[in-house]
Specification:
Blueprint lengths: L21 H4 L16 H8 L23 H10 L3 H11 L1 H11 L8
Helix pairs in contact: 4-5
Length: 116
């Protein structure tokens, strides 16, 4: 298994930290930004088209939950199953910047901020 490291390229477009994800650490996923099979993800496509490193760069929506690409049925199920709060992740990136966010997530060895 890989070690959890600090790498801003492992921040997913939705704000999750792939660098601490079990699938990534077990070489079962290349991480969101390198996952060519994830063409189904509208959020990923939107960020790539707009040259965003994540939804935190988007100025169209101050609250990512207002975005129909961010707030989907799939994302709600994912959040429920994994108790992940992608909105909190995006807000944290906006608050402290991607470098500090990456450091924080790597130190905590978590792929997401947990729902409260």
């Amino acid at each position: 298994m890989k070690e959890v490291i600090k790498d801003k390229n492992l921040v997913a477009y939705c704000g999750l930290y792939c660098g601490a994800c079990k699938r990534y650490l077990n070489d079962k996923c290349p991480g969101c930004q390198k996952n060519e099979k994830a063409k189904w993800c509208q959020l990923r496509s939107c960020c790539i088209e707009r040259s965003f490193s994540s939804c935190a760069d988007c100025q169209t929506f101050s609250d990512p939950m207002e975005c129909k690409k961010f707030n989907t049925f799939f994302s709600k199920i994912f959040g429920l199953l994994f108790k992940s709060d992608r909105r909190a992740c995006i807000e944290r990136i906006r608050e402290i910047g991607v470098e500090n966010y990456t450091q924080e997530m790597a130190e905590k060895k978590v792929h997401s901020i947990k729902k409260k």
